Amino acid sequence: MNFTELSRMIEALGKDRGIEKQIVVKAIEQAFLVTARKKFGIQGEYETRYNADDGEIEIFQYKNVVDQVRDPIVEIVLKEAKDLDEEIEVGDQIGIKIENPRFTRVDVQTAKQIIFQKVRDAEREILFAEYKHKEKTLVTGIARRYEKGNIIVDLGKADAILPKREVIPSENFKTGDRIQAYLSEVVMTNRGPEIRLSRTSPMFLVKLFEVEVPEIQDGTIEIKSAAREPGFRAKIAVKSVDKDIDPVGACVGMKGSRVQNVVNELQGEKIDIVKYSEDIETFSRAALAPADIVNIQMDYEEKSMDVVVDDDQLSLAIGRRGQNVRLAAMLTGFRINIISKTKLQERIKKAVENLVQIDGVNEARAQVLVHSGIMSVGELAAIGARELASMLETNEEDAETILKTTHAAIEAASVQLEPTEEEEFVSASAVPSYTGLIDNGAPKSENDKDRFSDVERRLREELAAFKLK
């Protein structure tokens, strides 16, 4: 058949939408194959071919050669088959070109609908592949409209969605504004690819520094961890592979020019740049800056740490509304308990007073036990003689005597099991809502690439246990 619009349709789709000619041709062939089956019988076997020279769709119907025809749609008598091919025999199959299919207007309209549906599907696949390749990068677009509070951003070839929760709190975009964002995810939906953007992700901060700092682009400096409270404060940890280059200074730039460009893009968000260290204690001290740390007690199994600071450094360590300790927890991936030095000393004093209730435990021995982590009579009663002997550097008989005395005093209720606590020992505690540590350019997660998904990260932030007392 001659369908004059086919050639123009193929050229137009290829030029306007960037779809390969072969994809459009395949869609046309499939469309007319469906139409042929409906018109000539669905039990028949058909083949469609696009003839580029003539701009014509050729339809072939395949029939089995038989002596006696029972179903004319799938069979042909040998005599008629011989007229088409002299060498044909019974049992062979022959393809017969349908010269004039006489498609009705409805048939052609059905074919058009199928063609455009196939083309739309192909276009979606092309867009998905193109933007999937750009995932985890910065993109720039124009704000077009608002839908249910979300911003629809025109990226040129496709629209992306910037959810309301992914917009920095102080931002207010208007239609026509230029928006730079982090392309966090591309997913295929029933309506086509959905491109999701974020301006609150820690990776948006990382990518902005990659743009501003050439040393990060060439690999001389690495961003090892990043944490944000969007619109308020952020921390990043950097490391240099060249000992002669200061990673913090390189990220700050001459007169702070580099970091200032990032701050401006983030609507004035304050950024702390700290030096990364493989030693978690050293790294934690840097993460809690500007506070000076007296001592850190690490618990690697529980991924937590007790941080002791002087009273005058307590507010700096905790930060405004707890920001400093929360960001440090996210930066390191450890739970952080901030403890006042005065409260620690008071707790140690009360623990010693509690332990000297036991005969055989003098103040010196009580100090040793406290240093070993035994803070009360109850905890003393729970250990064995050999462990106690090791702590006090005495023999097991002496240790056994102390433990018998302890158990007897507890049974007689003549001692106080725990020291009295007048106030909360921990001044502030922060559990990381996500780990900011970066591996191969992506935050760590519990699944494929150690990166929290957008939804999971948000849930963790909402459920994050932060307590300021």
Structural class: alpha+beta
CATH topology of one domain: N Utilization Substance Protein A, Chain:P, domain 4
Distance separating the two termini: 83 Å
Oligomer: single chain
Overall, the morphology is elongated
**Rg, Cα atoms, Å:** 37 Å
CATH class label of one domain: Alpha Beta
> CATH architecture of one domain, please?
2-Layer Sandwich
Beta strand count: 19
Spatial order of strands in the largest sheet: 5-6-7-9-8
Number of helices: 17
- Main beta-sheet strand count, sense and barrel state: 5 strands, mixed, barrel
**Spans with pLDDT under 50 lasting ≥5 residues?**
440-469
Q: State the CATH superfamily name of one domain.
A: NusA, N-terminal domain
Overview of this protein structure:
This protein has 469 residues and is α+β, with helices and mostly antiparallel strands. Among the domains are: 5-123, 2-Layer Sandwich (N Utilization Substance Protein A, Chain:P, domain 4); 134-200, OB fold (Dihydrolipoamide Acetyltransferase, E2P), CATH 2.40.50.140; 358-411, DNA polymerase, domain 1. It is 39% helix and 25% strand. A five-stranded mixed beta barrel has the order 5-6-7-9-8. A five-stranded mixed sheet has the order 13-14-15-16-19. Strands 1, 2, 3 and 4 form a four-stranded mixed sheet that branches.
Show the helix and strand layout.
Elements: H1 5-16, H2 21-40, E1 45-51, E2 56-66, E3 75-77, H3 78-84, E4 93-97, H4 105-132, E5 138-147, E6 150-154, E7 159-162, E8 178-189, E9 192-198, H5 202-212, H6 214-217, E10 221-229, E11 233-240, H7 247-252, H8 257-265, E12 270-275, H9 280-287, E13 295-299, E14 304-309, H10 314-318, H11 323-332, E15 335-340, H12 341-355, H13 363-371, H14 377-381, H15 385-392, H16 396-411, E16 426-430, E17 438-439, E18 442-443, H17 454-463, E19 466-468
Parallel strand pairs: 2-3, 7-9, 11-12, 14-15
Antiparallel strand pairs: 1-2, 2-4, 5-6, 5-8, 6-7, 8-9, 10-11, 13-14, 15-16, 16-19, 17-18
